[in-house]
Amino acid sequence: MTRATAAGLAALRRRLDEPPPESVPGQLAVDLASTDERPKVCDYGNPRCGAVPVRFYPNGWKCDAHQPSRTSRRPAP
Questions:
Q1: Are 5 and 13 in contact (CB under 8 A)?
Q2: Angle, CA 11 vertex, CA 9 and CA 16 arms, to 5°
Q3: Which 8-state DSSP code applies to residue 66?
């Protein structure tokens, strides 16, 4: 390893030990915890099924009874 490479790596290691900046230019400070407070429920039907627990599928949050047929765990006939 050359001296220039070793010096560059040492400088990068020192940067890793520095605390993160207060704010990064161009980034928006968003509190993600407050945007997702409602519990997830099955959104099948009208009125909504509302069952819990659910999993996310490409067509939304579904319970085991309303999961898409391509992912259902039913035994083959």
A1: no
A2: 95
A3: G
Q: Give the separation between CA 67 and CA 70, rounded to whole angstroms.
A: 8
- Residues 5-62: pLDDT tens digits? 999 999 988 888 888 777 767 766 665 555 556 788 998 988 889 898 999 988 889 9
Claim: this prediction has a pTM higher than 0.90 = no
Altogether, the residues listed in the chain come to a count of 77
Q: Which two tokens stand for residue 3?
A: 């001296």
Closest CA to 62 of 41, 36, 46: 41
Q: Is 5 left (phi over 0), alpha (psi -120 to 50) or beta?
A: alpha
